[in-house]
Amino acid sequence: MLVDVVCMRRRGQKLAREQLQAEQPVRGELGLSAIRPGWYQGKRDPPLMAWLVHPERMDHLLPSLDPARVTRISSKGMVIIGMEEVHLTFKRNVTAYPQAWWVRPAAGPMPETPQVREPRRSALLPVSNVPLHSGDV
Predict the structure, then answer these.
(1) Residues 54, 28 contacting (CB under 8 angstroms)
(2) Is residue 70 part of a domain?
(3) How far apart are CA 13 and CA 4, in angstroms?
(4) Is the peptide bond before 55 cis (omega within 30 degrees of 0)?
(5) I need a labelling partner for 22 at 20 to 30 A (CA). Which of 10, 40, 87, 123 fits?
């Protein structure tokens, strides 16, 4: 689902209302799933994981929230809370901070969306030339 996400915290600290209104939303495809490999596989009620990726390149736009929980749903959107892991350096120095996302359905197309090309007609085979069974050849 194409959404606009506003991060409601910075390094675990809540942002003031004025800062939230000034924040530029990040647009991408929202993923929210309890299906995950590893230790949680097959367990009852595994925690959710939330992520935001670019719709065409599948690059992560924000650090994932793990575990994630939807705390509010309204006509203005929803709020997802969780822990985000932030890599401070190139070494294995990782810190987890609490984070909250304000998620709204995107209004309008994705910016910088390339035009979709039509396939070449010469690359398409006519349906009448394709045998349905091996005995039809």
Answers:
(1) yes
(2) yes
(3) 21
(4) no
(5) 87
Q: What is the phi/psi pair of residue 11, to 5°?
A: 50, 40
Q: In the numeric block, which tokens belong to residue 12?
A: 């675990």
| Structural domain boundaries, residue 92 | 2-132
| Residue whose tokens read 């800062």 | 19
Concatenated DSSP letters of the chain: -EEEEEE-EETTEEPPHHHHHHSPPEEEEEEEES--SGGGTT-SSPPEEEEEE-TTT--BSSPPEEEEEEEEEETTEEEEEEEEEEE-SSSS-EEEEEEEEEEEE--SPPTTPPPPPPPPGGGSPPGGGS-SSGGG-
pLDDT digit string, tens, across residues 23-68: 999 999 999 988 766 666 666 777 889 999 998 887 899 999 988 9
CA 50 to CA 126: how far, in whole Å? 44
Assigned token pair, 68? 């994630």
Query: Is residue 37 domain-resident?
Result: yes
